[in-house]
Amino acid sequence: MELETLIIFLLIVAVAAAVQTITGFALGLVLVAVTTAVNLVEISYSAAVIAIISMSHAAIALRRSYRQVQSQIFRPLLYGLIPSLLVGYQLLDYLSGENDIILRYILGLMVIVAGSLMMAKPMVLAVQSKSHVSVWVGLLGGVFGGLYSAAGAPIAYYLYRQPMTIISIRSTLLAIFLVSTGLRTVIAGFSGHLTIEVLATALFSLPVVIITTLVAEKFLPAIPDRSIRTLVFLVLISLGFSLLIQPGSFA
C-alpha cells in the first residue's frame, strides 16, 4: 500500500473508531463502507484488516469484563454465527472481482439499515429471548461477519433489547466480536488473504484505534448523545446511498 493510501486509510480508521465508541459496534461497518465508497481498497482487503483490529480491540476491552459475558445468550448466538460466517466468507470469495458491484449493493443496504436501527431506541423485553431466536440472529450476523467483518449491527440491536445490564450487553457483544473476528482471521490465513501488507496495515491501525477511542471517551460525554447519534445516522445513510447509487469497480 502506498504511503498516501495508508494515511487516508488510517484517517478513516480514526473516524470508524470514534463511531465505534458512540455506537458500540460500528468500527468495521464504517471502515468497510467508507473505503469501498471511495474505492480506496478492495472489500476483501479492508475486511481482513478490520478482523485483526476488532479482534485485538475486543481482547483488550474484555480483559476486565469477561466475567460479565452472559453465556446463556452468548452460546446460541455462536451456534448460528460460526457456520454462517463460513458461508459469508465463501460468498465474499465468490463475489469479489467481477461481481464486486453486488457486494457494494449488499453493503449499501446493510449500512442504511444499521444507521436506521441505531436511531431507533430498542424496547427492552420483559424476559430474555429464547435460544432459537439467538441462533437466527447469530446466523444473520455471521453472514455479514464473513462478508465484511461487520457482524455487529443485528447482534447489537438484539442484545440491547434483552433484559440485561449495559456492562453485560457490551461484554457479550465484545466476546462475539472476539470469536467472530478471530475465526475470520484464521480462515483468511488458510485462504491466503492474510498477506504481509494486510498485517502491516492492521499493525499501523491499532494505535490509531486505541488513541481515538481514549480521546473520544474523554470528550464525547460533553456532547448530547442524540446529536452525536443523529450525525452518525446521517453519515451512515449518506454512505449507504452512495454505495447504491454509484456502484463501480475497483481500479
What can you see in these coordinates?
This protein is mostly helical. It has one domain. Helices cover 77% and strands 0% of the residues. It has ten helices and no strands. Helix 2 packs antiparallel against helix 3, helix 3 packs across helix 8 and helix 4 packs parallel to helix 8. The two termini are 14 Å apart.
Describe the structure using short key phrases:
mainly alpha; 10 helices
Q: What is the structure about, briefly put?
A:
This protein is mostly helical and 251 residues long. Helices cover 77% and strands 0% of the residues. It starts with a helix and ends in a 6-residue tail after the last helix.
Give the SSE layout.
Blueprint: H1 3-23, H2 27-37, H3 43-62, H4 71-95, H5 100-119, H6 131-148, H7 152-159, H8 166-191, H9 196-219, H10 225-245
Helix pairs in contact: 1-2, 1-9, 2-3, 2-5, 2-10, 3-8, 3-9, 4-6, 4-8, 5-10, 6-7, 7-8
Structural class: mainly alpha
| SSE run | HHHHHHHHHH
Tally of separate domains: 1
- Characterize the overall form: globular
In quaternary terms, these chains amount to single chain
Low-confidence stretches: none
Counting DSSP E segments of at least 2 residues, the number of strands comes to 0
N-to-C span: 14 Å
- Binned, the helix content reads over 70%
**Alpha carbon gyration radius:** 17 Å
The description of the largest β-sheet is: none
Q: In percent, how much strand structure appears in the residues?
A: under 5%
